[in-house]
Amino acid sequence: VYIGILTLSYAGLFAWVSGASVILQRVYGLSSVTFGFTFALGAAGYMLGATIAARLVVRLGLDRTMGMGVMVLAAGGLALAAVVAAGIPGVWLVAAMALYLAGLGLAMPQAMAGALTPFPDRAGTAASLMGLVQQTVAAIVAAVIGGYLGHSAWPVTGVVVAMGCFTLLLWALTRRLRAHER
């Protein structure tokens, strides 16, 4: 379950990384310099989420912090869809993605810790498997999106929305299972 949460949420990030330059420069007409600055805004969202998570996890625990993160992920994905549907300029697209990435910063470290905790004697092997699954799915997402990039932000947006919502759904549907494991 934790690897699923990690992998789905990371696939949304990878969709953004794979398609942001095409969307922001070709579709929205940003210069390469402006693209660089706006792309950094998204990264700031991740750093903010991770910073908040480091403070919250001690008080709330892994699962509640991760739950907040997946809710923010889904909200960011839906905000991204609203921005694209409304035809709002590119900087708002980046702000919506920064929200998704803040959720990733809240959820991803907790999912990693949750996936590795049951295997203290085999943490290296567990981490390798986790990375393999995460990177394989991300590579598949990037390859699929690459074939659809060009004239619209919808290919990336659709994947980010789907990954954010599927991550939230997986977290919600497995709450009892995760609580039982503790």
Describe this structure in words.
The protein is an all-alpha fold and 182 residues long. It has helices spanning 2-27, 32-86, 90-116, 123-146, 154-173, 175-181. The model has no long low-confidence stretch (mean pLDDT 93).
Summarize the structure.
With 182 residues, the chain is an all-alpha fold. It is built from six helices and no strands. α1 (2-27) packs across α2 (32-86), α2 packs across α3 (90-116) and α2 (32-86) packs across α5.
Give the helix/strand class: mainly alpha
Low-confidence stretches: none
Strand content: under 5%
Nearest-integer average pLDDT: 93
Described by the principal axes of the CA atoms, the overall outline is: globular
Largest sheet: none
Looking at the chains present, what oligomeric state does this protein adopt? single chain
C-alpha termini separation? 13 Å
How many beta strands in the DSSP annotation? Answer: 0
